[in-house]
Every structure is written in C-alpha cells, then in structure tokens.
C-alpha cells in the first residue's frame, strides 16, 4: 500500500483581515461548501494549532465574517491575518459516490490495469477547462498529467491506496 500522509485536519478557510473594530475577521473560504460556516461552532487555528469557538456573522461578497472566541478588538484580529482555519477530517462534508477530495487522492499509488506501479499522485490540477488532471510523479522530477476521465482512470480505491489507470502509449513518456 502507498505511503500516504493521512490528513487528520482539513483547511476550510484563511483569515484575510479584521472586519470592524470589535474583533471580527474576514475569512476566505477554501471549501466547496461555504455554507458550512453558518453552523460552524469550533475550528482549530494553525500555527501552532489551537482550538477556538467561532460565531458566523455573515457573508460579504466571497468572504465569510466570523467572530473568534477571545478576539475582542481589531488589534487582536490583526494578529490572525493569514491564519488557516482547520477542522478534523471527520467533519469534512461527505461527497457523492465517485467524487473525492484532493487530499484523499494525493499520495495514492498509480498502477496500470496489470498492477504495475507507475508512480504516485502528487497534485490535482483544476486549471484545465475540460477536466481535472492528476499530476503523477514517476521518478524524482518526472511528472506527467493524467486526465481525470473514465477513458484513462479505471478505478480509485482509497482503502488500497491506489488509482488504476489504463494509459495510452506516450501518456507517461517524454
């Protein structure tokens, strides 16, 4: 099985700036489910990780406004600029069948349909206008893009730690 880093914490947002003078902060959500902030009660603040109660205050454009326990003025809120908000992996929103979080895919062994190890997923690229791309490292410094489509990806098995592909000639070659 692949040596995967088990992600115990999931980043859901990052403090961008204070909001007002009473300690509220603006948070840029890095989740596909920004509505989660409306019911969020606790987070871990990174660097070093520490728990904090939170209270949702509203949305402003693409940002979330939160009050954070113990942060009572603008100066204290300023110290949180750039801090990530984390939740335990168990609190990640469940996805429909066949959908995966990037952090679940990164670290998977990539094998062909015969079981031959080809490399490891090191990144998921969402910048393609057509479909996502799995960035597969086959050797140090050697990376290839595998389209995240059924034609190539035959199976994703998180339990076994592998992604099975059926590569066409030249897909994983220079």
Automatic annotation (TrEMBL):
InterPro entries in alphabetical order: PRC_barrel-like_sf, PRC_RimM, RimM, RimM_N, RimM_N_sf, Transl_B-barrel_sf
Pfam family name, one: PRC_RimM
Keyword list, A-Z: Chaperone, Cytoplasm, Ribosome biogenesis, rRNA processing
Subcellular localization, as worded in the UniProt entry: Cytoplasm
Record's keyword annotation contains rRNA processing: yes
Record-annotated RimM N-terminal domain positions: 12-90
Superkingdom: Bacteria
Cytoplasm recorded as keyword: yes
Domain Ribosome maturation factor RimM PRC barrel: residue ranges: 103-170
Domain comment, as recorded: The PRC barrel domain binds ribosomal protein uS19.
Family matches, as HAMAP family: Ribosome_mat_RimM
Cited function: An accessory protein needed during the final step in the assembly of 30S ribosomal subunit, possibly for assembly of the head region. Essential for efficient processing of 16S rRNA. May be needed both before and after RbfA during the maturation of 16S rRNA. It has affinity for free ribosomal 30S subunits but not for 70S ribosomes.
Subunit: Binds ribosomal protein uS19.
Family indicated by similarity: Belongs to the RimM family.
Protein name: Ribosome maturation factor RimM
Species of provenance: Symbiobacterium terraclitae
